[in-house]
Amino acid sequence: MDAISDNVFNDLDTVETVSDDPSLLTVILDISPGSWFQLRDQISIVEVTKSLLVFLNAHLSLNNSNQVAFIVSSPVGSKFLYPSPVHGTEEQRNKPTLITMNMYRQFRVVDEAVLQDLNTELEQIRNNKKSYSAVSTLAGALSMALTYTHRMLTLDQSIRTTTQSAINNTTNSQHHHNSGGTGNSNGSGHSSQLSSTNVKSRILVVSADDTDDLKYIPIMNSIFAAQKIKTSIDVAKLGAKNSSYLQQASDATNGVYLKIEDPKGLIQVLSSAFFIEPSVRPLFILPTNSNVNYRASCFVTGKSVDLGYVCSICLCIMSLIPTDGKCPTCDSNFDARIIAQLKRAPAVVPKKRRKVVSTAPPITP
Amino acid sequence: MSSTNLFKTTVIQHLEELPQTIQTKLYEAPATCLSIFRLLPAVAKFFITSMVFYERPVSLSQLDKWCKPHARNRQIELLQRLKALHLILDVNNGSHITLNPTFRKNFRDCLTGVQSVNAFGNICTTPDKHHVDVSFLDKFASQKWETILHFMVGTELVAAPSSSVLSLLKLGGLMEGPGNSPKNLAITNKGFQFLLQDSNTQIWTLLLQYLNLTKDLNMDPVDVLNFIFILGSLELGKSYTVSHLSATQVSLLADLKDYGLVYQRTDSSSRFYPTRLATTLTSESSALKSASTSMDQVIESASTDNDLSSGQGGVASSTHGSIIIETNFKVYAYTNSPLEIAVLNLFVHLKTRFANMVCGQLTRESVRSALQNGITAEQLIKFLETHAHPQMRVLAKEKLDKKIEFDTNNNINTAGGAPGTKSDSNITQHKLEILPPTVVDQIKLWQLELDRIQTFEGYLFKDFVSQQEFEVLNKYAMDIGVLLWSDKIKKRFFVTKKGIDQVADYANRKIPSR
Amino acid sequence: MPTATKGVLVQCDPSIRALILQIDSKAPGIVLDELDETHLLIKQDQVMNVKNELNKLLSKNIYNPFDEQ
């Protein structure tokens, strides 16, 4: 369409196309106790949660149809805090409230659910001391966020809280029998859901984990899934080190990656750098780091490698040569001679059979 | 631009035109702050949130660094509008900006939940003798509202809305005729356009007329606006006390009841219920067109022989449409609702009418006449899409599935960039095409054809003595975002009407007159 | 000293520009200045007139399927 219209008009039109569509924000908070313990002098989980709640409120205040989700990732497992799969909303209202009743309704419902469940979650971690050494479950949380996003994007029409559709939703059930005669509304019930809304979505990961022991393959899969549904993954990294996998995640999905040096000012960073809605992203220069470390992790040991071996059949990455001479992933046999060459002492000029991820060019034989 | 955007501008425009004292008074209510914030364009929202928790003034040059170059003009325009609303204020001779302190405080309180008691309405704590539930409210609201719409197109069977509604319709130029008797009123062109809008836009259109009216009635605009904005943040299905409202707001309540925005059992009742029409006032609505709901009702009551009352109150699923469009621009609509046919007649050349359907054709002339009446191509397409026959959706879905399957079979990546590439904006993604693409493109082309020229009022600067003189002024005009065209060789440039004063001032300062 | 002239900037493609110039040649006093390939400066009160004339000229070349029926 644009190709046939005159250039003259396109120049002006491109700027006008920013829409104000509703958007879905999923926040993933990594509460692995070890990493937050490291940061205890700078900031506590409570303070971070406070900032995040205000951030959620701000997102909800953008648009009445905006949606939020909150996932917590702990050594015990990942869990949805909001929308809560367990409690109905009515049940929650009857509980003693942690939040002042005067707060705006939309904010209050979300904030209450998050605070209550976060408390129980932290209790659980406290009572469950032996699982502290478990690896990060961030990858799982990420997949949960993506599946939820996907559902909201395609199937669930309830994200439209507009007048007409909402009225229809409530009254439909009652007046269902009325339309039985036409046989029309029943049949179209499914097909009407096809018209997917223009919901935009993004995911924010808040993590303080410095160990970098994320599961590489699930994270990469999540990245590809996020690309598919055009969801940006933003990462707010606290703590001392950069996380290269999360860096890759935001880099590949056009997200924002920031390592927050001073966690005290978290709310300002959240409300500025992390507040760029997907719909206005084309207009802004994203405050992100271009120096991304694209390293991968070894399929055998799970450690990240800067330099390693690659299987020529399935591109599986290894930091060491497998003892049985077989690829651990695709089970193809490696050439014994070349393995022998590779295993030779470094004094000998190494001849490589398999291409190395990134290394100086081998000297030709 | 979508209809909602156009309309939003008018609400904000209304606010912009208010004097600063009134604006500042408005910002004292947290609910109003929230609502006004919601009505702002997306980029403006970003600027405001980034300043809410930042105490110091922000320098303009800092702000420029956020935006990509092609968004600069838009940014400047936005800042000007925010200044007109007095949401942001100049400091340090205009090199820095800061958020309006009243707004900052109240909006921040609103986000953190520390605002004063009852900022969002006062809930009745005692139970109501006469039980009112959500579905009742929905029924009430839709009945009131549909009555107005049906009245506009002259559907028989419907009782006329109250006289206050009628005078508003007349005042807004949606209907015209001698006197205020309902029988003499006839719908205008503008009225038909009004029907094409979603219900949220329709309500705001009426409310804006109402606001204009309040000026003449000497009602306090702050009171009225605050109440309207608070309505948008009330909780559906809860009752609120009348006793906390000012006298102005109580009188407002009676009128809002006529539009179906609030429910009050009797005029003297001490409580009122907001309906869904009210609680979604400040929400973005890419909503389904309300014309369709009324149409569905008619179909339903005709085909199932329901009694009239249930046909009126029960809103059927508005998502099932009735319009089929073929690639040869022929339109078939299975409807006999006068409302639906009247709306279709706006842009379809209707030819034949049967008992349960009408046939017609989209022609250049029919679409052009709609476009010339101020309906946009976007609106037309949106309308046709939301009213498309279920069969068209099924077909579109099948087509889409086939395309996706083809791509996956042939390893074509349609979903996004490969890892590391950022140019995913160039990669086309398959969309569900409910309407034939030829028709969609043609409607857009017809619109483009209408505005073959773009016009800008302003001033041409020429006769510069030296290149340097030209460069200085040219650069200044570009920096303040008022430059529309310039020619370096002939030393001429064109600035907008708004910018002329600033550029002329600057010219007088920089270029000594001889 | 530079001078400022009040007017309306018209942005269009070259073919339309030629048509506007043609309109101007028939009824002079519309176009104040020819700026470049895609820009013209015209008198403020003539904008609607130009638009109407343009529409007339352009619709001459449009095929209307209903003419034949």
Write the layout of secondary structure elements.
The complex is a heterotrimer of chains A (365), B (514) and C (69).
Chain A: H1 7-16, E1 23-30, H2 33-38, H3 45-62, E2 67-74, E3 77-82, H4 89-94, H5 105-127, H6 138-154, H7 163-174, H8 184-191, E4 200-207, H9 216-228, E5 232-237, H10 244-252, E6 257-259, H11 266-272, E7 296-297, E8 304-305, E9 309-310, E10 317-318, H12 336-343
Parallel strand pairs in A: 1-2, 1-4, 4-5, 5-6
Antiparallel strand pairs in A: 2-3, 7-8, 9-10
Chain B: H1 3-17, H2 20-26, H3 30-39, H4 42-52, E1 58-59, H5 60-64, H6 72-84, E2 88-91, E3 96-99, H7 101-112, H8 134-153, H9 163-171, E4 175-176, E5 186-187, H10 189-196, H11 199-216, H12 221-231, E6 240-241, H13 247-259, E7 262-263, E8 271-274, H14 276-279, H15 290-304, H16 308-313, E9 323-325, E10 330-333, H17 338-344, E11 349-353, E12 358-361, H18 364-372, H19 377-386, H20 390-409, H21 437-450, E13 454-462, H22 467-479, E14 483-487, E15 492-496, H23 500-510
Antiparallel strand pairs in B: 1-3, 2-3, 4-5, 6-8, 7-8, 9-10, 10-12, 11-12, 13-15, 14-15
Chain C: E1 3-11, H1 14-26, E2 31-36, E3 39-42, H2 47-59, H3 65-68
Antiparallel strand pairs in C: 1-3, 2-3
Helix pairs in contact in C: 1-2
InterPro entries (chain C): TFB5-like_sf, TFIIH_TTDA/Tfb5
Protein name (chain C): General transcription and DNA repair factor IIH subunit TFB5
Subcellular location (chain C): Nucleus
Please give a structural write-up.
The complex is a heterotrimer of chains A (365), B (514) and C (69). Chain A folds into 2 domains: 21-162 and 184-283, Rossmann fold, CATH 3.40.50; 295-359, no CATH class. Chain A is 38% helix and 13% strand. A 6-stranded mixed β-sheet of chain A has the order 3-2-1-4-5-6, sandwiched between helices. By secondary structure, chain A is α/β, with parallel strands linked by helices. Chain B has 514 residues and is an alpha+beta fold. Chain B has 4 domains: 3-112, no CATH class; 134-279, no CATH class; 317-410 and 431-454, no CATH class; 458-510, Alpha-Beta Plaits. Chain B has 23 helices and 15 strands. The radius of gyration of chain B is 27 Å and the shape is globular. Residues 1-6, 285-319 and 414-428 of chain B have low confidence and may be disordered. Chain C is of the alpha+beta class and 69 residues long. In chain C, helix 1 (14-26) packs across helix 2. The radius of gyration of chain C is 15 Å and the shape is elongated. At the A-B interface, helix 1, helix 3, helix 5, helix 7 and helix 8 of A face helix 3, helix 4, helix 7, helix 8 and helix 15 of B. Chain C: It is found in: Nucleus.
